[in-house]
Amino acid sequence: DMIIHTGDLISEGIVDFLSQKPLHIVHGNMDNFEIKKKFPKKKILEVSGFRLGLIHGWGSPFGIEKRIRPEFTNVHAIIYGHSHKSANHIDKGVIFFNPGTATGFSMSGCHSIGILDITDKINGAIIPV
């Protein structure tokens, strides 16, 4: 088990709260300089033989997947944030997964988190909160 956070953290206090499990974080565009120094813009994780690209994203929520896709090669999934809109679908063999937002404004109309079950394949679920 692990926790993945693709920004915005806004406050480092959330790191202490989330660190009950192994934690993987990339910073977001709204994070302060200290957070951006501590956490990378993007990261690749290997889990059960699958390569996961982690990135926050930038710009308009519309077309975000086209902008972030070139940031990674040879990944099975791209996990991202920024848009505040949940996503869980496959495009040209790559899973695009955005858990949405558990707090703040939601483009999906409800707050949500995401769960990825990674065993012999990757199964994603968006959970309203």
Class per helix and strand makeup = mainly beta
Mean pLDDT, rounded to whole units? Answer: 94
Low-confidence stretches: none
What is the rounded distance between the termini? 20 Å
Q: Helical stretch count?
A: 3
CATH architectural arrangement:
4-Layer Sandwich
Secondary-structure element order, N to C: EHEHEEHEEEEE
Helix content: 10-25%
Oligomer: single chain
- The CATH class designation is Alpha Beta
Short description:
By secondary structure, the protein is mainly β. It has one domain: Metallo-dependent phosphatases (Purple Acid Phosphatase, chain A, domain 2, 4-Layer Sandwich), CATH 3.60.21.10.
Description:
With 129 residues, the chain is mainly beta. The chain has a single domain, classed as Metallo-dependent phosphatases (Purple Acid Phosphatase, chain A, domain 2). The protein contains three helices and nine strands; from the N terminus they run E-H-E-H-E-E-H-E-E-E-E-E. A five-stranded mixed β-sheet has the order 3-4-5-7-6, with no helix packed on it. A two-stranded parallel sheet has the order 1-2. A two-stranded antiparallel ribbon has the order 8-9. The longest helix is centred in the N-terminal third of the chain and has 6 residues, at 13-18. The radius of gyration is 14 Å and the shape is globular. The model has no long low-confidence stretch (mean pLDDT 94).
